[in-house]
């Protein structure tokens, strides 16, 4: 259960104001986030002898995606989380740091982030039930709250998502947030019904009016699903996949063994409203390894155009006419003061004009050997410009 919030009043009408003062989409440009239910990290299989066992196989499959931030659930680390910490700090897929809330042989969540990220952690929250890990920090200059979630059943914690919502209000303190995991619930509460046309077909027994399930006679954990839907209706959090794909069907949980036909989309992100315009894509990946019965979920944010720096090619200064134009501008200042210089200025201006035209012609032709006369004329104009200035 989530600590110290069960006695709070219902949060359905509570207003949550995001802090936009330092929010800039460029802060999170191009970042990627991955959710994976690992069905135990199998840390007991780890042997530091170079062989690839279950733990290494699972971990390598996850790291191979090269996501910037990874949210793991059902980790079951018990007292061996140091194995993951040591393993991910230097890998062929990148170097990561990890925070875990997984001291038992059941449940458990973790958050990994690339060591190269400009990310400073300021605070974190670990629930006693080990189903929630929230991390406050500054990511690329933006105050954020990142979280890894593992949803329990309705029976084990009836108000889990209402309490999670309240915890985000109090702990995240108006930060932009991205939380994700195996929620064991849906973002749609539409109930399936028996399809009389396919009632004898075991592969399609129920109507597909709920886009998040297939071949199921009930939605998973309807109380929790309703709490999530209420949060979306209140615009407290949003499911980016469904926000961008109103009717698209994809499923994250696929039971092992080919004989089970039920499917559900119970793994998803919940993000704050101010991130909706930043989302590039949310996709359900093919199973990263056959050791998993959940697909990975990859959220990528849009790459924004960075401020372009205009570099002047120093070779440009060697073009005939550049120095002469600069001298003309200086001469013009003197001519404005002393009108006796006007004839000199006019003659110099004509020479500069001719010189620029000739230089442009030679630049476009790119072959001085075939335009020797023009090249000689260019050099004549350069010398003439010098003589006018020298007389002055």
CATH C-level name of the largest domain: Alpha Beta
In percent, how much strand structure appears in the residues?
Answer: 15-25%
Strand-pairing-aware structural class: alpha+beta
Q: From the 3D coordinates, which CATH architecture of the largest domain would you assign?
A: 4-Layer Sandwich
Number of domains: 2
- For the biggest β-sheet, the strand order reads 3-4-2-1-13-12
Q: Low-confidence stretches at least 5 residues in length (pLDDT < 50)?
A: 1-15, 312-316
Outline the biggest β-sheet. 6 strands, mixed
Fraction in helix:
25-40%
Overall number of strands? 13
Radius of gyration: 33 Å
By CATH's scheme, which homologous superfamily of the largest domain applies? Answer: Endonuclease/exonuclease/phosphatase
- What is the straight-line distance between the termini? 90 Å
Q: Please tally the helical runs, counting DSSP H or I stretches of 4 or more residues.
A: 8
Q: Sum up the overall morphology in one term.
A: elongated
User: Overall mean pLDDT score?
Assistant: 83
What is the H/E string?
Answer: EHEHEEEEEHEEHHEEEEHHH
């Amino acid at each position: 259960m989530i600590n110290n919030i069960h006695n709070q009043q219902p949060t359905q009408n509570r207003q949550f104001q995001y802090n936009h003062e330092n929010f800039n989409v460029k802060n999170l440009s191009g970042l990627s986030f991955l959710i994976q239910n690992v069905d135990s990290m199998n840390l007991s299989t780890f042997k530091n002898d170079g062989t690839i066992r279950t733990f290494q196989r699972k971990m390598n499959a996850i790291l191979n995606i090269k996501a910037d931030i990874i949210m793991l659930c059902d980790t079951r680390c018990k007292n061996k989380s140091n194995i993951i910490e040591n393993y991910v700090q230097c890998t062929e897929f990148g170097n990561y740091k990890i925070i875990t809330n997984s001291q038992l042989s059941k449940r458990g969540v973790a958050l990994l982030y690339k060591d190269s990220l400009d990310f400073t952690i300021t605070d974190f929250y670990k629930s006693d039930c080990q189903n929630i890990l929230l991390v406050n920090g500054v990511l690329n200059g933006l105050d954020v709250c990142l979280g890894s979630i593992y949803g329990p059943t309705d029976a084990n914690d009836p108000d889990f998502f209402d309490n999670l919502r309240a915890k985000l209000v109090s702990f995240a303190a108006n930060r932009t947030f991205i939380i994700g995991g195996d929620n064991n619930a849906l973002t749609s509460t539409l109930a399936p019904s028996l399809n009389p046309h396919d009632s004898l077909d075991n592969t399609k027994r129920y109507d597909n009016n709920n886009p998040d399930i297939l071949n199921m006679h009930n939605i998973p954990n309807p109380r929790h699903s309703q709490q999530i839907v209420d949060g979306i209706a209140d615009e407290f959090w949003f499911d980016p996949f469904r926000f961008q794909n109103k009717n698209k069907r994809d499923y994250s949980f696929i039971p092992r063994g080919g004989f089970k036909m039920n499917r559900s989309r119970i793994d998803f992100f919940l993000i704050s409203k101010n991130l909706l315009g930043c989302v590039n894509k949310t996709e359900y990946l093919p199973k990263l390894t056959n050791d998993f019965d959940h697909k990975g979920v990859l959220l990528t944010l849009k790459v924004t155009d960075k401020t372009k720096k205009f570099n002047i090619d120093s070779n440009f200064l060697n073009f005939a006419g550049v120095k002469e134009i600069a001298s003309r501008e200086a001469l013009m200042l003197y001519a404005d003061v002393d009108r006796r210089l006007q004839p000199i200025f006019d003659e110099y201006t004509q020479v500069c004009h001719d010189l620029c035209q000739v230089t442009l012609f030679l630049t476009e032709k790119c072959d001085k050997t075939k335009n020797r006369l023009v090249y000689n004329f260019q050099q004549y104009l350069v010398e003439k410009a010098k003589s006018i200035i020298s007389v002055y």
